[in-house]
Amino acid sequence: MAIDWPNLTFAYMPTNGYLVVEYAEGVWGTPEVRTEPYIPLHIAASCLHYGQEAFEGLKAFTTRDGRVVLFRPEQNARRMALSAERLCMAPVPEELFISVCVQAVQANREFVPPYGTGASLYIRPLLIGTEPTVGVKASDTYMFIVLVTPVGPYYKDGFRPVEAAVLAGYDRAAPYGTGRAKTGGNYAASLLPSHLGKEQGYPIILFTDPAEHKYVDEFGTSNFMGITHDGVYKTPSSSSILKSVTNDSLQILAADMGLPVVSAPIAVSDLGQFAEVGACGTAAVITPISAVHHGDVVYRFGAADTAGPVLTELFGRLQGIQYGDLPDTHGWLLDVDAAVPVAE
Ligand SMILES: Cc1ncc(COP(=O)(O)O)c(C=O)c1O
User: Among residues 82, 126, 134, 299, which one has the fewest Cβ atoms lying within 10 Å of its Cβ?
Assistant: First the structure.
């Protein structure tokens, strides 16, 4: 099958199969490849009724010199372990997580987009509670699944800014809830405000802290980061946001560029301090944000049609490392052919 790599979207495409590992009686079994894109699941499984599910998202890239690499998979493994802990699920050991991701890529080698297409292979690890539970309780059995699908370049028409809005009356997470976990419920809670935002012309929604609605939390599927007028990289610290691997990587690259990096609460009323604002995450790396609408107040950052210089530089550096155009100075890439499978 010929794949039109540069014109792929962010959508599921059938592949050779997915990897699955089951957990029962306190032990993880052996990873298996399944070719049909379905899972046998009990109708009373805890993931369906009580939301015991956590997922991850990372990418594999073909580098300039033809290697296939994963970007910082251990970070996703650690974050899934945190999500599992919060949702009272069996954690997937880090080595097993990485090994199953590597095997899923290896089983779908021909779906890894070639270098130069701007596309990548999206990897979606998923952990679900499978025990039939009619009463509310944590499952004793789990399934860890890794599916992959090729996705196209996020910016086909250039690295252009979009406008965001804060929608009053909607939170994605609660103050001591599951905002730090990557679990479906947070995304379900964001669907309606995101839909309403799009209807009002805002492709992206900014959530504020759920306790006071005074501070910036994060966008629906990405972290908030910005460069202040005096050249500081700032990102919110909050107990209800997801710890983004991209944001962490950008902070390290910003420090390499000599920028001070600050993680602290950011009041919505202080958004005027930013010269550049971005939404950062695995899918797009950075989406430049040219304005945040908050009720009748509009905060504007830089030009409406072009990304600012610091975000452009950070974006170039991160993508440059991912595609092997720049040296991997922080040891972020894992070569799938060099990865050792977990011993059984
Ligand atoms: C709510 C939320 N915040 C932040 C991110 C960015 O995280 P990462 O950079 O690890 O993709 C994502 C995307 O995964 C997300 O869904």
Answer: 134
Q: Which of 309, 311, 295, 80 is nearest to 206 (CA)?
A: 295
Ligand 1 centroid to residue 59 C-alpha, Å: 13
Report how far residue 133's alpha carbon sits from residue 49's, in angstroms, rounded to the nearest whole number.
8
Q: What percent of the chain has pLDDT over 70?
A: 97
Residue 8 to residues 113, 153, 279: CA-CA distances in angstroms? 10, 7, 22
The CATH class, in words, for 162-306 is alpha beta
- Into which CATH architecture does domain 5-156 fall? 2-Layer Sandwich (3.30)
pLDDT value of residue 344:
47
Ligand 1 neighbours (beta carbon < 6 A): 57, 218, 221-223, 242, 244-247, 281-282
What residue owns the CA closest to ligand 1's atom 3? 222
Mean pLDDT for 47-67 is 98
Which atom belonging to ligand 1 lies closest to the Cα atom of 218? 3
